[in-house]
Amino acid sequence: MFSSFKLFDLARPAIFALDSETGHKLAIKALKAVPIGASPKRQAGTSSLAINVAGLDFPNPVGVAAGFDKDAEVPDSLLALGFGFTEVGSITPRPQAGNPKPRLFRLTEDQGVINRMGFNNAGAVAAVKRLEARKTRGGLVGINIGANKDSEDRIADYAEMARVMTPYASYLAVNVSSPNTPGLRALQDEGALSALIDGVIAARAEAMEGAASRGSLPPMFLKVAPDLEPQDIDAISRIAMDKGLGALIVSNTTISRDGLTSRHAGETGGLSGQPLRQLALQRVRDFRAATGGAIPLIGVGGIATAEHAWERICAGASLVQLYSAMVYHGPTLGAQIARGLARIMEREGVSSIAEAVGSE
């Protein structure tokens, strides 16, 4: 493992003395120094950790969630640190500054994070330049797509992003669940969601016409909110199965604030990290029940240890993703969790991750 990141624990007090967004920018800058050539630990895994989801072969089930690498600056560095996959974005058609600062807050006592970033990113053109430059390097890199805040036709924004990003994506993740873009979560409503998915599917196919050399169509994943009613879960599950989506990402941040003790607990935005863990776990169970296991689930929210990841997998997740936990435990956490999963599987007498999915 890249040895300089073993200094994270020593550097943590200095990092935490900075505001959260500055600390994050420094983390991205540091990751750019990770060797990405022929690292023997790139996408670390064992045969027992490998799993096929939506036609993609994941070397291990531990990935980086969207929001960490918004502008596709360090996907290969993250893969080199042992993550099985990473998801860049959310990326919007045009650059946007996001919401006013401060907009990112550590909740240290709660091991959580509140953000109201607002899809800040440099836009599709800048991301494509980076993705074009790395497209021969291999590894699984999903692209999380969003709509501009001031867009008059958000469904058209998603379709445009699908056309632009399809040639570079291992999978496309459609984000309709951020609480920080006004009105975005309304796209989870049944009628709007069906129209959006149809638009993205058509645009994805259009992007690949006459481009057979670039490979097959990337699967489409949908990222949902944890703050859903049972009827919403049933409707989203039905649409996902009817439209043939590759997976559901469960879940985005929550607007709930139960049981927090940190001084930033009252900040508006989406809450992630440890306070989200039980809610996100329950949503995996809910979507597993609603779909009958017919569509893969990706578990996100509050996963900080191998035991947390194992719990989410046994509840029905084929893959898991991290973000907030890396704020507190450093960028080598993914490889640590992957190794821990291998030990748990040996302890439980399980020979493959697929065997454990939904086994609780």
Question: What do these coordinates show?
Answer:
The chain is of the alpha/beta class and 360 residues long. Helix content is 37%, strand content 16%. The protein contains twelve helices and 13 strands. The protein has helices spanning 8-16, 20-31, 75-80, 124-134, 154-165, 190-208, 230-243, 277-291, 306-315, 324-329, 333-348, 353-356; strands spanning 51-53, 56-58, 62-64, 85-91, 104-107, 112-115, 141-145, 171-175, 220-224, 247-250, 270-273, 297-300, 317-322. Strands 3-4-7-8-9-10-12-13 form an eight-stranded parallel β-barrel, surrounded by four helices. Strand 8, helix 6 and strand 9 (220-224) form a beta-alpha-beta unit. The longest helix is centred in the middle third of the chain and has 19 residues, at 190-208. It is globular and about 45 Å long. The two termini are 33 Å apart.
Question: SSE layout and pairings?
Answer:
Elements: H1 8-16, H2 20-31, E1 51-53, E2 56-58, E3 62-64, H3 75-80, E4 85-91, E5 104-107, E6 112-115, H4 124-134, E7 141-145, H5 154-165, E8 171-175, H6 190-208, E9 220-224, H7 230-243, E10 247-250, E11 270-273, H8 277-291, E12 297-300, H9 306-315, E13 317-322, H10 324-329, H11 333-348, H12 353-356
Parallel strand pairs: 3-4, 3-13, 4-7, 7-8, 8-9, 9-10, 10-12, 12-13
Antiparallel strand pairs: 1-2, 5-6, 6-11
Helix pairs in contact: 5-6, 6-7, 7-8, 9-11
